[in-house]
Each structure stands twice: as structure tokens, then as C-alpha cells.
Amino acid sequence: MAGWHMPSLLRPRSIQARTALMSAVLSLLVLTVIGFGLDLTVRNRIHSHLFIDTQRVATDWIASMGPNGVPEPPAAHEDLVQLVDSRNRVITASRAASGRAPLTSPFPDGEDGLQYRIDCPDGDRCVVLTAVRVLPVQSRLFWNGEPHAVYAGRPEPGLLATHRLELFIAIGVLLMTAGWTWASWCVAGRTLRPVREIRERVTEISVRDLSLRVPQPHGRDEIAELARASNSFLDRLDTSVRQQRHFASMVSHELRTPLAGLRTQLEEALLYREETDPYETISTAVRTTERCQAIIDEMLTVARVRTAATHQPEPVNLGTLAREEAAARTDGVPVRVEAEDEVIVLGNRVQLCSVLTNLLVNAQRHACSRVDVMVRRDGDEAVVTVLDDGDGIAPEDRERVFEPFVRLKDGRRRDPKGTGLGLALCRVTADAHHGTLRVEDSPRGARFVLRLPLPAGAAAAGSAPQLSR
Fold it and tell me: Looking at the structure, do residues 40 and 107 belong to the same domain, yes or no?
């Protein structure tokens, strides 16, 4: 039975129907066993009462046999009473048993003078009877010692004789099975109702509109967890699709202008061959393609960092990383570093190095005389601050600078060839490391603050920080 499976043609497709079917089969088996036991119990109980009654009738009649002779058998219409000799011949009988063959056979010999029997003659109702041997004293008194016995019985009740008991129990089993199956159907339907609602809502969701969410039932059962997981997946899918659309629109927008200019220059070179310098046309085309390639490379880097998880993160000492990047910046205004010892986070060293490089390049571009870099712990976070002494960023532009291809007027003046993707890449990398990157208030210049989570236990280890330069 452990390896038995319902044939696929007989197995319903609906979970609700399968649950109700299995409940029906199990309840039918269990109730059949219970009904069988109930039938035996009722039969035994009725037979026990009949044995007690017939034994009382037989013993009372035997007790009445005395010196005055053998009295008449009991006259109750339902009692079948017979007096038989050792050859099982009827000597006398009650009115109900008159003219009948012996109620049972053989004659009760042996030491057991009291026997309970159920005799079922062919084509007639079974008789429940008690066979009692007459006392030896009475046998010697009336029949010269020949053994005699008294049969006292009653016909089996119609409830048992006509199998109505089994019929009633079978009807009860079927009704209870039907009731249990209906209850299982209702309970399964109620349980699976949220699943149907989730399915209907999912069919309404399309790639064009991922704003819909599946209904989320209360509680913490499996269906509620499924709904929460589905909504979380839809949130991530919606975010990913939005990012892809944004990526495609930004690339097409930023590449449209240089490609249109390149096409115009090439068409002019073809139409006005004598008036156009081929060398100048090729040089301009090379510069345009270089800009397009820079835009594509930066966008691919942004997309790669945004969509790829940081697999197998490694320990990165932010203080050491900041000092190395500052030492590499030999051009421009000087960079001064203050760092606590052992400020270590888990992440991608190459990506974090790219963040510091972009922040230092941006700070040196706008600084007047110096750039300060500070690395420290703040609770359970590592904080890297890059501060320049330039003109700063207006509060209304502090979030715009992290948008792809957004370049403020001063930035375009200081770096005409820039793509406007450096700070956007820094923000995306910070998000990928579960951190934040913001522009915070400062007395002068722009103050970029990168916050990254410390590993468990790292904050307590740094309770006595020391600054190094």
C-alpha cells in the first residue's frame, strides 16, 4: 500500500477534489471498521440478554419439578421450551414449541450441564437458546435415572434475523461518509480560496503593468507565506523591469545625440567631398565613438553592479583602501586621510575601490585647496566621509547628482567629457552592499558620506578606536 498511487485517469486535477476524495476513502474505511465492530457489539449484546432470559426460563421450570410431578411448560407466547430425553426426542413442549423438532442437537452430554447455543434451521429464523440438563435426582425420580434436558429459546429478533441491523449501520456509514466528505470539501475550498484569489490576480499581472499585488491573507500559515513571497518577488521583478526600462531609455537618450551628430558629419563628408577634410572627419568620428563607448561601458558597469549580487564577499579594510586610493591621486589638490584602525566590512573590494576613486575624483575636481577623507565606526556601521572645500552642492540638487547622466552646470564646465555616471555608479554600489551614500550638510564644500554595515561583533571590537594618517 505504501507504493500505491491512484491512476492518473482517476485522479482529480483539483486539490480540493483530491482532498475530498481521499477524505471519503479514509472515512469510509474507518467507519466501515467501526460499523463492523458496532454490528458485532449489538449482536452480542442482544444474544447475551436472550441467553440470560432463556436460562432463567429453563432453570425456573427445572426448579418447579418436584414430588408432585413435572409441571406444564411455561405458557409465554415468545418462549420456546422443550423437555427432551437422552436420545433428543421431545417429551413435552410449550405451546409455542409444540409440534416442532428439537430446538437443537445433539443432546448436551458431558460435564457441562449448561450450554448456550444459536441454532439456525434451514429456511427458518435462528433460535437463541439455553440447553440445561435436568438434575440427576430429578432424572432418577421421574425417568429412572435416564438423562433429560430442557431447551429454552426465543426466536432471534427481526432486527438481527432480517439483517436490518447491517442495513441501518451501512446507511449510517454512508451518511457519515457523505457528511465528512462534504465537510472536507468545504474546509478544503475555504483553505484554498486565497490560492484561487492569488491565481486570479496573477493572471491579471502582465509585464506592462507590474504594480498589482496578490491578496495577502492574515496569519503565518503556508498560504500567507506564499502570498508574501509572491509579493516580494513581484516587488523585485517590478524594480528590475523598471531599472531595465530606465537603463534602455537612458542609453538610447544619451547615445542618440552623438550618433546623430556622427551620422551628420559622415553624410556631409560624402556629399561635399571636395570641401570636407577627411582627416578632420575621421578624427571627429573617433572622438564621438570614444564618447559612445565610454557611455556604454559606464552603463554596463551600472547594470552589472545593480543586478549582480556580491557573491562570496571578502573582508575589506576601508582605512587601508582609502589610504591607497589617496596615495594614487598624485595630480590635483592634495588628499588628507584620517582613518581608525581595522574598520573592516564584507564586500567586493574592486567595487568599493571604484566608489572611493569616483568620490575622490569628484572631490578633487571641485575642491579649492584640499580634500579630507575620514574613515570611522559609528555603532554597527562603517562611515567613510569625503569632504572638499569647494562651492558645495545646493540642497535641491543633492539627490539629483546620483541620477544617471545628471550633470550640474559647474560639473559640465570642469569636466566637459564626463558621462555623468560616476556618482550614479557609487550609489548603486552602496545599495548593492546594503549601505547608503548621501550628500550631507557641511560648513563648506560637498560632504559625501558612505555608510556600510559592519560584520557582527566588529563594532564591539572597535570600542577603543585610534586614528592614523
Answer: yes
C-alpha 451 chain-centroid distance:
36
Report CA-CA distances (Å) from 63 to 58, 66, 69, 157.
9, 8, 12, 28
> Could you tell me the CA-to-CA distances from 153 to 73, 132, 187 in Å, in that order?
12, 11, 53
C-alpha–C-alpha distance, residues 25 and 5, integer Å: 14
Cβ burial, residue 393 (10 Å; 0-12/13-18/19+): buried
Query: What pLDDT is stored for residue 462 in this prediction?
Result: 53
| CATH number for the domain that contains residue 415 | 3.30.565.10
Query: Distance between CA atoms of 125 and 154, rounded to whole angstroms?
Result: 10
Q: What is the pLDDT of residue 80?
A: 93
- 198 part of a folded domain: no
Q: Which residue has the cell 409455542?
A: 96
What is the per-residue pLDDT across 317-344, written as a single tens digit (0 to 9) for each?
Answer: 999 999 988 888 878 889 999 988 888 9
Least Cα distance to 376 among 464, 315, 457 occurs for: 464
Q: Whole domain around residue 410: which residue ranges?
A: 313-468
CA 24 to chain centroid: 25
Coil, helix or strand for 29?
helix
Cell of 7: 491512476
What's the burial of 137, exposed, middle or buried (CB within 10 Å: 0-12/13-18/19+)?
exposed
Q: What pLDDT, on a 0 to 100 scale, did the predictor assign at position 2?
A: 46
Q: How many residues make up the chain in this entry?
A: 469
Alpha-carbon distances, residue 85 vs 118, 138, 139 (angstroms): 20, 13, 10
Tell me if 187 is assigned to some domain.
no
9 has which bridge partners? none
360-381 burial: b if 16+ Cβ within 10 Å, else e? bebbbbbbeeebbbbbbbeeeb
Q: What is the pLDDT of residues 150-204, one digit of tens each?
A: 999 999 998 888 889 999 999 999 999 999 999 999 998 888 888 888 888 878 7
Q: What is the dihedral of CA 453, 458, 463, 465, to 10 degrees?
A: -80
How far apart are alpha carbons 131 and 129 in whole angstroms? 7
Do 323 and 443 reside in the same domain of the chain?
Answer: yes
Same domain, 30 and 154: yes
- With respect to residue 55, please indicate whether it lies within any of the assigned structural domains: yes
The answer to whether position 132 is within a domain reads yes
If asked whether residues 462 and 325 sit together in one domain, one would say yes
